[in-house]
Design a protein that fits this description.
GO terms for molecular function: extracellular matrix structural constituent; protein-macromolecule adaptor activity. One of its GO terms (biological process) is fibrinolysis. This is Fibrinogen C-terminal domain-containing protein. Pfam families: Fibrinogen_C. The chain has about 120 residues and is mainly beta. It is built from two helices and four strands. It has helices at about 65, 100-105; strands at about 10-20, 25-35, 80, 100. The strands form two sheets. A two-stranded antiparallel ribbon has the order 1-2. The protein has a two-stranded antiparallel ribbon with strand order 3-4. A hairpin with an 8-residue loop joins strand 1 (about 10-20) and strand 2 (about 25-35). The longest helix has 4 residues, at about 65. The chain is globular and about 40 Å long.
């Protein structure tokens, strides 16, 4: 990932899998290795994928609707890579941007980019 100041960081996970549609696209993520960004994904482990029209998180309200993007929300997020594209810390609604909380230690800094890469298990 990259911020608007040109800094880059990453987080690696040994295990990342998504279950079938009939199981709500449940996320399994583990085996974190810090590459500067901190671990913002483990708190989403075991969660189903939530969208505006399919609320599968544990929060009484709809995380996808409130934070403007589909993801494996719990109640609600440490990571929000599908949030609205914002410019760093511009004054926008709280936690709606492209967030990786453990890197910036805030829900109010939207990073410039996040790339998620997966590969087959070897």
């Amino acid at each position: 990932m990259e911020d608007f100041e040109g800094n880059k960081a990453s987080a690696h996970y040994r295990m990342f899998s998504v279950d079938s549609e009939c199981n709500g696209y449940t996320l399994t993520v583990s085996g974190f290795t810090d590459k500067g960004a901190g671990d913002s994904m483990t708190s989403h482990n075991g969660m189903k994928f939530s969208t505006f029209d399919r609320d599968q998180d544990t929060w009484p309200e709809n995380c996808a609707s409130n934070f403007m993007g589909g993801f494996w929300y719990h109640s609600c997020h440490q990571a929000n890579p599908n949030g609205v594209y914002r410019w760093g810390q511009e004054k926008t609604p709280h936690a709606t941007g492209v967030i990786w909380y453990t890197w910036k230690n805030t829900h109010d800094y939207s990073v410039k980019s996040i790339v998620m890469k997966v590969r087959p298990v070897q």
